[in-house]
Write a sequence for this structure.
């Protein structure tokens, strides 16, 4: 059993959710404040919006580092953002 597993095991769901949210906010790979974390039994539920598909996948990596045995239900959506040089059509 890893040290990370021990951190997640036996913790009240609200504490684990708070720890995961903090990790998603502070980890430089994700740095996401707009992702919500809920715990439903053994499942970590993520929802919100991120800028890229890679960032969405990295959320799961960070969660697995803290709760390696948790199942993840990732409902995070990738926001359609205009790329560099693209103009937003505001109408006339």
């Amino acid at each position: 059993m890893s040290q990370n597993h021990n951190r997640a095991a036996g913790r009240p769901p609200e504490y684990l959710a708070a720890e995961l949210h903090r990790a998603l906010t502070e980890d430089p790979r994700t740095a996401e404040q707009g992702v919500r974390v809920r715990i439903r039994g053994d499942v970590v539920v993520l929802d919100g919006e991120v800028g890229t598909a890679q960032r969405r996948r990295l959320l799961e990596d960070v969660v697995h580092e803290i709760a390696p045995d948790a199942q993840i239900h990732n409902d995070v959506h990738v926001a359609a953002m205009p790329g560099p040089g693209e103009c937003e059509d505001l109408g006339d």
Remarks:
- The longest helix spans residues 13-26.
